[in-house]
Protein backbone atom coordinates (compact mmCIF):
# COMPACT_ATOMS: atom_id res chain seq x y z
CA UNK A 1 0.00 0.00 0.00
CA UNK A 2 1.65 3.26 -1.06
CA UNK A 3 0.83 6.55 0.61
CA UNK A 4 -1.32 7.57 -2.36
CA UNK A 5 -3.42 4.42 -2.09
CA UNK A 6 -3.65 4.05 1.68
CA UNK A 7 -6.77 2.30 2.82
CA UNK A 8 -9.35 4.42 4.65
CA UNK A 9 -11.18 2.77 7.54
CA UNK A 10 -13.80 3.90 10.05
CA UNK A 11 -12.79 4.21 13.68
CA UNK A 12 -15.34 1.51 14.61
CA UNK A 13 -13.93 -0.91 12.03
CA UNK A 14 -10.39 -0.15 13.12
CA UNK A 15 -11.22 -0.88 16.77
CA UNK A 16 -12.16 -4.42 15.72
CA UNK A 17 -8.54 -5.09 14.76
CA UNK A 18 -7.11 -4.27 18.20
CA UNK A 19 -4.87 -7.15 19.24
CA UNK A 20 -4.69 -8.72 15.79
CA UNK A 21 -1.48 -9.11 13.83
CA UNK A 22 -1.08 -5.86 11.92
CA UNK A 23 0.09 -4.85 8.49
CA UNK A 24 3.72 -4.80 7.43
CA UNK A 25 5.25 -1.96 5.47
CA UNK A 26 7.05 -2.22 2.19
CA UNK A 27 10.78 -3.02 2.37
CA UNK A 28 13.13 -0.03 2.64
CA UNK A 29 16.85 -0.08 1.82
CA UNK A 30 18.95 1.74 4.45
CA UNK A 31 21.99 3.14 2.63
CA UNK A 32 25.24 4.72 3.74
CA UNK A 33 24.02 8.00 2.24
CA UNK A 34 20.98 7.93 4.57
CA UNK A 35 23.20 7.16 7.55
CA UNK A 36 25.67 9.92 6.62
CA UNK A 37 22.89 12.48 6.20
CA UNK A 38 21.37 11.55 9.56
CA UNK A 39 24.82 11.82 11.17
CA UNK A 40 25.30 15.26 9.64
CA UNK A 41 21.91 16.53 10.80
CA UNK A 42 22.18 15.17 14.35
CA UNK A 43 25.90 15.57 14.93
CA UNK A 44 26.18 11.87 15.81
CA UNK A 45 29.20 11.09 13.66
CA UNK A 46 30.55 8.12 15.60
CA UNK A 47 32.88 6.11 13.36
CA UNK A 48 30.69 3.01 13.63
CA UNK A 49 28.12 4.92 11.56
CA UNK A 50 30.19 6.99 9.12
CA UNK A 51 33.61 5.39 8.61
CA UNK A 52 33.24 2.15 6.60
CA UNK A 53 36.97 1.33 6.71
CA UNK A 54 37.29 1.68 10.47
CA UNK A 55 33.88 0.08 11.12
CA UNK A 56 34.90 -2.95 9.02
CA UNK A 57 37.50 -3.76 11.68
CA UNK A 58 34.88 -4.03 14.43
CA UNK A 59 32.75 -7.04 15.31
CA UNK A 60 29.95 -5.43 13.23
CA UNK A 61 32.03 -5.87 10.06
CA UNK A 62 30.93 -2.51 8.66
CA UNK A 63 28.90 0.56 9.44
CA UNK A 64 25.56 0.33 11.20
CA UNK A 65 22.60 2.69 11.17
CA UNK A 66 21.87 4.88 14.17
CA UNK A 67 19.09 3.45 16.31
CA UNK A 68 17.42 6.85 16.21
CA UNK A 69 17.53 6.83 12.40
CA UNK A 70 15.63 3.55 12.44
CA UNK A 71 13.13 5.04 14.90
CA UNK A 72 12.74 8.12 12.68
CA UNK A 73 12.04 5.96 9.63
CA UNK A 74 8.87 4.60 11.27
CA UNK A 75 6.87 7.49 9.83
CA UNK A 76 7.92 6.59 6.28
CA UNK A 77 7.30 2.89 6.92
CA UNK A 78 3.90 3.58 8.49
CA UNK A 79 2.65 5.27 5.33
CA UNK A 80 2.84 1.98 3.45
CA UNK A 81 1.18 -0.13 6.15
CA UNK A 82 -1.29 1.73 8.35
CA UNK A 83 -4.73 2.81 7.10
CA UNK A 84 -6.06 6.35 7.37
CA UNK A 85 -8.85 6.64 9.93
CA UNK A 86 -11.91 8.13 8.27
CA UNK A 87 -12.85 11.54 9.63
CA UNK A 88 -9.41 12.48 10.93
CA UNK A 89 -8.32 15.99 10.04
CA UNK A 90 -4.83 16.04 11.54
CA UNK A 91 -2.38 13.82 13.37
CA UNK A 92 0.64 14.17 15.62
CA UNK A 93 3.38 11.97 16.99
CA UNK A 94 2.36 11.61 20.66
CA UNK A 95 5.38 9.61 21.79
CA UNK A 96 7.02 6.26 22.40
CA UNK A 97 7.19 3.82 25.29
CA UNK A 98 9.55 0.88 25.69
CA UNK A 99 11.82 1.64 22.73
CA UNK A 100 14.50 -1.03 22.36
CA UNK A 101 17.25 -1.30 19.76
CA UNK A 102 17.47 -5.09 19.74
CA UNK A 103 19.89 -5.84 16.91
CA UNK A 104 22.33 -3.55 15.05
CA UNK A 105 21.18 -2.55 11.56
CA UNK A 106 24.01 -3.06 9.03
CA UNK A 107 24.34 -0.63 6.14
CA UNK A 108 22.57 -1.69 2.93
CA UNK A 109 20.05 -3.80 4.81
CA UNK A 110 16.39 -3.87 3.91
CA UNK A 111 13.93 -3.23 6.72
CA UNK A 112 10.18 -3.26 7.14
CA UNK A 113 7.94 -2.55 10.09
CA UNK A 114 4.91 -4.41 11.39
CA UNK A 115 2.29 -2.27 13.13
CA UNK A 116 0.06 -4.20 15.53
CA UNK A 117 -2.83 -2.07 16.76
CA UNK A 118 -2.72 -2.24 20.57
CA UNK A 119 -5.20 0.39 21.72
CA UNK A 120 -7.47 3.25 20.68
CA UNK A 121 -8.53 5.68 23.39
CA UNK A 122 -10.30 9.04 23.39
CA UNK A 123 -8.78 11.16 26.17
CA UNK A 124 -10.61 14.29 24.95
CA UNK A 125 -13.65 14.81 22.75
CA UNK A 126 -12.71 14.44 19.06
CA UNK A 127 -9.10 13.49 19.94
CA UNK A 128 -8.02 9.86 19.82
CA UNK A 129 -4.78 8.16 20.74
CA UNK A 130 -3.88 5.23 18.52
CA UNK A 131 -1.22 2.96 20.00
CA UNK A 132 0.81 0.46 18.00
CA UNK A 133 3.26 -2.23 19.00
CA UNK A 134 5.90 -1.82 16.32
CA UNK A 135 8.61 -4.26 15.30
CA UNK A 136 11.19 -3.41 12.64
CA UNK A 137 12.66 -6.48 11.00
CA UNK A 138 15.81 -6.82 8.93
CA UNK A 139 15.37 -8.93 5.80
CA UNK A 140 16.80 -12.44 6.27
CA UNK A 141 17.46 -11.99 10.01
CA UNK A 142 15.59 -13.59 12.90
CA UNK A 143 15.71 -10.80 15.47
CA UNK A 144 14.20 -7.36 14.95
CA UNK A 145 16.38 -4.27 14.93
CA UNK A 146 13.83 -2.23 16.90
CA UNK A 147 10.70 -2.75 18.97
CA UNK A 148 8.56 0.01 20.48
CA UNK A 149 5.13 1.07 21.61
CA UNK A 150 4.17 4.10 19.50
CA UNK A 151 1.32 6.50 20.24
CA UNK A 152 -0.16 8.74 17.55
CA UNK A 153 -2.73 11.44 18.26
CA UNK A 154 -5.54 12.07 15.77
CA UNK A 155 -8.08 14.87 15.74
CA UNK A 156 -11.49 13.87 14.43
CA UNK A 157 -13.51 16.27 12.32
CA UNK A 158 -16.79 15.20 13.97
Structure commentary:
By secondary structure, the protein is of the alpha+beta class. It has one domain: Thiol Ester Dehydrase, Chain A. The protein has 6 helices and 8 strands. The strands form 2 sheets. Strands 2, 3, 5, 6, 7 and 8 form a 6-stranded antiparallel sheet that branches. The chain has a two-stranded parallel ribbon with strand order 1-4. A hairpin with a 2-residue loop joins strand 6 (109-124) and strand 7 (127-138). The longest helix has 11 residues, at 32-42.
In short:
Helices cover 23% and strands 40% of the residues. By secondary structure, the protein is α+β, with helices and mostly antiparallel strands. Strands 2, 3, 5, 6, 7 and 8 form a 6-stranded antiparallel β-sheet that branches. The protein has a two-stranded parallel sheet with strand order 1-4.
Salient structural properties:
MaoC-like_dom; six-stranded antiparallel β-sheet; Thiol Ester Dehydrase, Chain A; NodN-like; MaoC family dehydratase; elongated; two-stranded parallel ribbon; HotDog_dom_sf; 158 residues; alpha+beta; 23% helix
Overall geometry comes to elongated
Q: Alpha-carbon distance between the termini? A: 27 Å
CATH topology grouping: Thiol Ester Dehydrase, Chain A
Strand tally is 8
Structural class per helix/strand content?
alpha+beta
Q: Could you report the average pLDDT, rounded to the nearest whole number?
A: 93
Instruction: Identify the CATH architecture.
Output: Roll
The proportion of residues forming helix, as a percent range, comes to: 10-25%
Number of continuous helical runs: 6
What fraction of the residues are assigned to beta strands by DSSP? 35-45%
The description of the largest β-sheet is:
6 strands, antiparallel
The CATH homologous superfamily corresponds to Hotdog Thioesterase
What pattern of helices and strands is seen along the backbone? EHEEHHHHHEEEEE
- Rg is 17 Å
CATH class designation: Alpha Beta
Protein name: MaoC family dehydratase
Domain MaoC-like: 23-119
Pfam families: MaoC_dehydratas (PF01575)
Amino acid sequence: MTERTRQTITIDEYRKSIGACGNSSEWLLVTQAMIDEFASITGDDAFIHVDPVRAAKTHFGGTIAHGLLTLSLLTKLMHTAVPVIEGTKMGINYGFDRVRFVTPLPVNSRIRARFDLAEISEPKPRFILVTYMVSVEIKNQQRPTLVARWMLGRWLSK
